[in-house]
Specification:
Elements: H1 3-10, E1 20-28, E2 33-35, H2 42-53, E3 61-70, E4 79-88, E5 98-101, E6 106-109, E7 117-120, E8 128-132, E9 137-141, H3 144-160, H4 165-168
Antiparallel strand pairs: 1-2, 1-3, 3-4, 4-5, 5-6, 6-7, 7-8, 8-9
The structure holds zinc ion.
């Protein structure tokens, strides 16, 4: 674990009463689940999950979940799913690194030097924003399907130009 994350956890408020814990996990293609830990705040749980997903091009993952558990409650009533994301092939870079949250109409490629994204517009409700950071591409679409095909179009252009995000943008530092 890197130092930044360690510091964040050490400075998290201590839990004084029994309360809630935040549990991120991912599922591998063969169905095996990997727990990423149990955390006292949602913020830390998200950071741990997001950091893990950045390496998802090295693994075969199908989904991620962030679940909150009320401590000392027996059974499923103690559990609330905060987020479930599914991993698909990225429409731009084609790697299996495109994390989609279908409830919130958001998606993001965690592949290195790609980071294609989709998000429901906060300004125009019902519209979908999309972008591809390496060329500062930004666009608005009417539906999730349109947004995906706009991103696919970028992928097709890249392919036609004989480049992939991997080879074309290796000079961009990782963080
Ligand atoms: Zn991508």
């Amino acid at each position: 674990m890197d130092e930044g994350l360690k510091g964040l956890i050490l400075t998290a408020p201590f839990m004084t009463a029994t309360s809630r814990v935040f549990v991120p996990s991912v599922t591998e293609e063969d169905g095996g689940a990997i727990g990423l830990g149990v955390f006292s705040t949602e913020e830390i749980a998200w950071k741990v999950l997001r950091r893990f997903l950045r390496k998802s091009h090295l693994m075969s993952l199908t989904r991620s979940d962030l679940v909150v558990w009320d401590v000392d409650i027996v059974g499923e009533e103690g559990m609330t799913v905060l987020s479930s994301m599914h991993c698909r092939d990225c429409p731009v870079c084609k790697r299996r690194t495109f994390w989609m949250d279908l409830d919130s109409f958001s998606a993001m490629c965690t592949g290195q030097a790609c980071e294609a994204w989709i998000e429901e517009s906060t300004i125009d409700p019902g519209k979908i924003d999309l972008g591809w950071p390496p060329t500062r591409f930004l666009k608005q679409a009417d539906s999730l399907e349109d947004a995906l095909s706009d991103l696919k179009e970028i992928g097709t252009q890249l392919e036609a130009a004989g480049s992939t995000p991997n080879s074309a943008f290796t000079s961009i530092p990782e963080e």
